[in-house]
User: Which sequence fits this backbone?
């Protein structure tokens, strides 16, 4: 494989007045790939996005975008990237349509072309009806959609989406997923952060899991699930006897007590749990597919982050 | 040393500063009809209350009517107020609450161009508002000299200076309420003590010199008065030179201070 590397970080580091936000990370993102950054609050995802976008200079390490160093090539890099930031920074002084045309001006897009593009994008994110509405009167989901439309004004090669669906209802989230998929098909490289593991599993070819500014795991979502959580997970109601029995049946299984439940992870192939459940009955036993959330919680723990 | 030098680094600017200026112009054009009223009515109030009302009790040494003395000062004062407001409160809202600057710097426009666009817009507000006031005093017959045509370009320069000073405060205040300090300690004294409502000759000589050296408005008032009345024999060139030296200083300083605040 000789895929073109679009983003490459080596020993990338960022400190804020002594606080280590990103702690010497390495990663490569290939052209046309969808790449996810996962991690608990404060892990350093947004900080990394800002460094890639060239708005926040790295404290140390190397970061190149399409072969250009982020330091000193700000304009070239920013003109090939579109960003939907985590924080809403739409311009409340303007209508939906003007938000796009005024923003297009910063990219030097000529007036008529900007108008055409703005109409197209409003159709793309299904906001034509809100064309002349002031931003303040949009719902959260509409704002997220508009931010994504705005990120596409300059027809970016790289699209950075920092938590694109946080706070959205399932309809809006699916709409955004579909839009992201159609951009992926067009060959846009998507860099995404999210707290929704199903979203990461659905949209990302590869993911990185960060914690405390470091990368703690990386790979394809399904590979990581197999590696850390196996194929199936057994959940049952906790009791001393059940625990004892489980330990005899699954010798090297990982068991986790969550509230009044036990979660059992094994490397056994699919079907091992149902065989056991046929032999003996357990209260509230459920077998489900292992997922990325299991991986995430295993690697980053269940404690809340400040 | 390196720190101080970095505060006076020359900004990298391009035509893109006008894109930021245009953003503010577009917002202004949405509400300009109501925006014109305060600068139109305020000077009328001052002229009536102070010029005609108080002026009846005031005898100036050179025999000039009091209303004639304060009228050009009102033009200069509006340069100060409009640009200072624009680059303190208005810029702070755009920077801090609306995150407008964050949105713009994700595009090929850099932070130095964003701030310069803001400063040029502040200067433009000074030009617009003071020209309205100038129109009012002209209508009252209080700006008789054809040199008054030089006041609008002057107002842009004065506006740029006050915008730059304002932006220095915007770069360091923790929150929007903190602007009451520069307003109370800097703007209000200047409004009252810059040869606006009484001739500077009335105060001790040392204070006169201090007012000329440290209060930007003093220079703006002197120049405006000279142009409105065509009294260029008072050599306002020194005042102009003062503005031309001090403005670039604060212009560059404010851009660097803002860069330090926003680029982390
Ligand atoms: N401008 C800043 N100044 C100081 N500290 C900052 C700044 N931005 C981020 N940090 C700190 O850097 C760390 C990483 O923050 P970052 O925003 O990158 O986290 P994140 O992974 O995006 O979290 P979340 O999931 O909550 O969005 C946090 O400890 C945060 O407090
Ligand atoms: Mg974040």
Assistant:
């Amino acid at each position: 494989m000789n895929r073109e590397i679009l983003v490459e970080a080596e020993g990338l580091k960022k400190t804020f007045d002594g606080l280590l936000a990103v702690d010497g990370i390495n990663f490569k993102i290939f052209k046309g790939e969808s790449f996810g950054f996962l991690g608990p609050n404060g892990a350093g995802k947004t900080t990394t996005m800002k460094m890639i976008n060239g708005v926040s200079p790295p404290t140390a390490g190397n970061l190149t975008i399409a072969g250009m160093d982020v330091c000193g090539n700000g304009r070239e890099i920013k003109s090939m990237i579109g960003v939907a930031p985590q924080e809403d920074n739409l311009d409340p002084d303007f209508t939906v349509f003007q938000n796009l045309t005024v923003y297009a001006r910063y990219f030097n897009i000529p007036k008529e072309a900007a108008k055409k593009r703005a109409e197209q994008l409003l159709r793309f994110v299904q906001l034509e009806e809100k064309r002349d509405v002031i931003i303040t009167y949009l719902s959260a989901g509409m704002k997220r959609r508009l931010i994504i439309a705005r990120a596409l004004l300059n027809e970016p090669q790289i699209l950075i989406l920092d938590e694109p669906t946080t706070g959205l209802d399932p309809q809006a989230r699916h709409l955004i997923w579909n839009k992201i998929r159609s951009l992926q098909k067009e060959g846009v490289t998507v860099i995404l952060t999210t707290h929704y593991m199903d979203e990461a599993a659905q949209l990302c070819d590869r993911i990185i899991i960060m914690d405390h500014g470091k990368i703690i795991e990386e790979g394809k979502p399904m590979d990581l699930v197999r590696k850390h959580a196996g194929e199936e997970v057994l959940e049952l109601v906790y009791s001393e006897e059940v625990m004892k029995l489980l330990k005899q049946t699954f010798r090297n299984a990982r068991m986790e007590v969550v509230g009044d439940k036990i979660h059992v992870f094994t490397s056994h192939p699919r079907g091992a749990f149902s065989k056991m459940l046929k032999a003996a009955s357990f209260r509230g036993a459920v077998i489900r597919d292992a997922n990325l959330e299991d991986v995430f919680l295993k690697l980053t723990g269940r404690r809340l982050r400040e | 040393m390196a720190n101080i030098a970095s505060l006076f680094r020359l900004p990298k600017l391009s035509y893109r500063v006008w894109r930021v200026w245009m953003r503010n112009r577009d917002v202004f054009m949405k509400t300009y009809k109501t925006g014109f009223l305060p600068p139109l009515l305020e000077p009328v109030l001052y002229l009536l209350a102070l010029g005609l009302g108080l002026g009846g009790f005031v005898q100036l040494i050179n025999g000039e009517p009091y209303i004639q003395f304060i009228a050009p000062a009102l033009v200069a004062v509006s340069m100060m107020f409009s640009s200072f407001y624009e680059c303190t409160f208005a810029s702070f809202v755009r920077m801090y609450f609306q995150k407008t600057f964050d949105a713009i710097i994700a595009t090929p426009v850099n932070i130095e161009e964003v701030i310069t666009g803001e400063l040029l817009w502040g200067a433009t507000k000074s030009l617009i508002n003071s020209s309205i006031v100038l129109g009012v005093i002209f209508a009252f017959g209080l700006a008789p000299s054809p040199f008054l045509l030089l006041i609008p370009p002057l107002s842009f320069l004065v506006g740029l200076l006050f915008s730059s000073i304002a932006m220095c405060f915007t770069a360091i205040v923790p929150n929007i309420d903190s602007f009451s300090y520069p307003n109370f300690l800097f703007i209000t004294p200047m409004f009252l003590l810059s040869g606006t409502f009484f001739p500077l000759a009335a105060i001790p000589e040392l204070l006169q010199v201090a007012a000329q050296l440290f209060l930007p408005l003093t220079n703006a008032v002197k120049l405006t008065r000279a142009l409105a009345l065509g009294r260029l024999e008072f050599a306002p060139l020194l005042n102009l030179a003062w503005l031309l030296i001090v403005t670039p200083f604060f212009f560059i300083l404010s851009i660097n201070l803002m860069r330090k605040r926003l680029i982390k």
Summary: Chain B has one domain: 2-262.
